[in-house]
Amino acid sequence: VEKGVVWKVGKIFLNDDMLYRFDLLPEDGHKMPAFINLQQYYAEAFLVDRASELPQVDLRWRNKVVGLDQRNDHVVLAIDTPDGRYHLKADYVVACDGARSMLRGFVGAEFSGEVFEDQFLIADVKMTAEFPTERWFWFDPPFHSGQSALLHRQPDDVWRIDLQLGPDADPAVERLPENVRPRIERMLGHANFDFEWISIYKFQCRRMQRFVHERVIFAGDSAHQVSPFGARGANSGLEDAENVAWKLSMILRGDATATLLDSYEIERSAAADENIRASTRSTDFIAPHSAQERRMRQAILRLAKEAEFAKRMVNGGRLSTPSVYETPLSTPDTDVWAAGPRPGAQMIDAPLAAANGEPIYLTEAFRQGGGGFVLLHAGSDGGDQPGCHSIHIGETAPLRDASGLFAKRYDASKGAAYLLRPDGYVAARFRKPTAAAVQAAMARASGRAS
């Protein structure tokens, strides 16, 4: 967060005219911003630094998996190194080896979907600019007629520029700096910039049919691919990791059986389908395939200048949001709720105050729960439950809801409680929780429901 560029506002333009402005986090009182722009090389460097601090993590550079053998109760990996080959035994393998995954081939899985032929130019340019820190997207801008354009700020005065080129562009020609520079100069109106990176890309929306293959679990781009519109690729990969980590932890501790991984398949494959649908719709609007689709888009864009309802139809890339799971791990509501995250939805943050007056966010208090189940109590009543960490929020409780946002966002009348999974998703909620109901919901969320 400290290194990244924080933003929440986006603007959509047609030619030089702004069609509308959106705010992804219109209400204050959240620990984290709506979005953070951060170059991939920084993200990877931070992850490597953090991994090196953890004794449980062993980073092995210049090690390449060249074979995989699944046994009844473990997996054996064949690994090549400059010093020769060795074999590694594992209870489970999480395959995070990207879109060109070799492990996917080792289990004989297909990777099917749609290839989009339109090509796009990415140019990361370093410059001093006074543009606001917002996401700007143009349809048919005067500097790039008939196509689309995107402008985003990154750290270190680097700006990401994305220009649609169409299906017939020659990538070898278009990526030459002497050909890219005039395009960027027309966009910016000046030549005071340097190139950090230039690339031409086209993309695919595709996924594996199954993400879990016995003891090999696929996550991130190895399991699914989407277009870059909406930042759904990396974000969905992180959600995969959050989802599978706590489930594997419970299985390896003996607190759950291997069938808990069935819920990873259910939840994350549905999330992948949702992301592919959203990405495909964005792509179809940004780069229409047919004359009929182009006419429809132009009609919507023209109408959006005047009609509020048409603005909702303009699609310059729907931004990534956490999926809501329809999952057997959730306990269905039996009480009436006017608001709040329902079972299967991600928890919502809220500002709180500790007994000493120090501010603390709900997500911070959640992380102090030790990585297990957490029971949020509205009020100081309600005893601790075996197998989960309790957080009490109320006037006489250890945490105070001074702003009232916790009560508002969770529809949390006194005595209400929310059971949160280790990944921050709501497993169940109760107006008047009983020990038996909480324990049954925890068992269900752990895959142990009878």
TrEMBL record:
Cofactor: FAD
UniProt keyword terms in alphabetical order: FAD, Flavoprotein
Keyword Cell wall biogenesis/degradation: no
Gene3D superfamilies cross-referenced by the UniProt entry: 3.30.70.2450, 3.40.30.120, FAD/NAD(P)-binding domain (3.50.50.60)
Ranges of residues in domain FAD-binding: 31-278
Gene Ontology molecular-function annotations: FAD binding; oxidoreductase activity, acting on paired donors, with incorporation or reduction of molecular oxygen, NAD(P)H as one donor, and incorporation of one atom of oxygen
InterPro entries: FAD-bd, FAD/NAD-bd_sf, RIFMO-like
NCBIfam families registered for this protein in UniProt: PRK08132.1
Name this protein carries in UniProt: FAD-dependent oxidoreductase
